Amino acid sequence: MAAGSRLLLLLPWLVMASHSPPGCKIRITSKGLDLVKQEGLRFVEQELQNITVSDLHGKEGQFHYNISQVKVVDLQLAFSDLHFQPQQHLVFNISNASISLCFRRQLLYWFFYDIGSINASADGVHIHTVLQLAKDEAGRLKISNITCNASIARMHAGFSGTLRKVYEFLSTFIVTGMRFLLSQQICPSLEHASLVLLNSVLDTVPVRNYVDEHIGIDYSLLRDPAVSTDTLDLDFKGMFFPRARENQELENHAVEPVIKETERMVYVAFSEYFFDSAMHAYFQAGVLAIELQGEKVPKDLEVLLRATFFGTIFMLSPAVDAPLRLVLQVSAPPRCIIKPSGTSVSVSAFLNISLVAPGRPPVQLSSMAMETKLSAKVFLQGKALRVQLDLRRFRIYSKQSALESLALFSLQAPLKTLLQLTIMPIINERTKKGVQIPLPEGMDFTKEVVTNHAGFLTVGADLHFSKGLREVIEKYRPAPTTPAYPSSRPAEPSMDPHQL
């Protein structure tokens, strides 16, 4: 009984442990799916136009026939629909489509031989496909399975040539065979297009890649996508890591982003954890430090610092004229705070001021603590999430005594000016590149709007295709290997009736 009680107490913690909150969440709405349908329909048309149908040959009594070189010449997809199906599926339907074909005919009847072409039309084509979405072992979104059913209601063929009447007599048999062969090729073509070609487009989504020479980003999916009747939600880890320690993990204790809106095509949400992990990774990489020495120190500030520490400098003769060095070093990983009113970053740092005489060890004049609060403007440009920082509050104090903190009060304004005019432009230049959002190549955001919430922010946007699916597929299609010996050209269809 006691063991059962303990298990009940542990159950909520086990559930929380199994459900890791995402640092980044993406929601695709029905409006976004409508845009995907338009591009997907063009892709399906291209795939169906490339259908290859096997040759049809045989005999009926004294009639020997051969149907070859079947080509799709036109495709009319009158009605199509793409919609979400809970829990992990997309459903794509094509109704009442028509496919126009042409193929080569050969016919032998006793001693009469006929050759020519036939134009045919398959009408009432219905295609029903269900795509199952899942995350693979690498945490990438994939089409894991496809269910397909295809049918052709009617097929007509037009004949010409010397034996046109004979072909019309045999048309029922030939057309039935062609309808069967064509319907059997539709689903394999769409299965290859989904499981191979479309998955190659999903391979262009960044999962775990480098942001710069110091840090990388992990966009692996935490779980399979959640599909409702109106939305598709993707939970990404959204964690930055230092490149020197790629396996380092940072626990996520932030608020989980919640997306309720459905008005735009896509929504991307970022929690405080997303930004905290970036700053933690930079801190671990040891790059949150800036050094100014000699001519890089503004003249007005140098004069003020030399006047402030005149007594100390005077006692260091002959090092009075040695250049000054300022080292600003962040002392702990900065923290991001997201509120409906805005986004801010709290930074604690040390500022060490030294004299650096040539050939001599540095002489420290002062080491002061700094507490700063930066305002952060988060925006999206293309597929890159960018942050523009600005100094909001600034305070310095001595680590040694309150009396020294009082003496440093005169440095408050000039050091704040130094941060605003010298340090902040350097930081913003480093963050200018931004980090890419996990979208496939060829798909971009437009009309972005950033909205702050308690503990996370969302970016609502529309989508557009800057590249077609076919263009992206061809870009990453492996180059064909050249055979060691030139292959012979395929043989032309036989003109000898005895080989029919």
Beta-strand percent range: 35-45%
Percent of residues in helical segments? 25-40%
Category by helix and strand content: alpha+beta
Total DSSP E strands? 22
Distance between the termini: 83 Å
Q: How would you describe the shape? A: elongated
Main pleated sheet? 7 strands, antiparallel
Provide the low-confidence segments as ranges.
Answer: 7-17, 484-500
- Number of alpha- plus pi-helical segments: 9
Rg, alpha carbons: 35 Å
Q: What's the pLDDT, averaged over the residues?
A: 84
Protein described:
Helix content is 28%, strand content 41%. It is built from 9 helices and 22 strands. The strands form 4 sheets. Strands 14, 15, 16, 17, 18, 19 and 20 form a 7-stranded antiparallel sheet that branches. It has a 6-stranded antiparallel sheet with strand order 10-11-1-13-22-21. A hairpin with a 2-residue loop joins strand 2 and strand 3. The radius of gyration is 35 Å and the shape is elongated.
What are the key terms here?
single chain; about 500 residues; alpha+beta; 7-stranded antiparallel sheet; 6-stranded antiparallel sheet; 9 helices; 22 strands
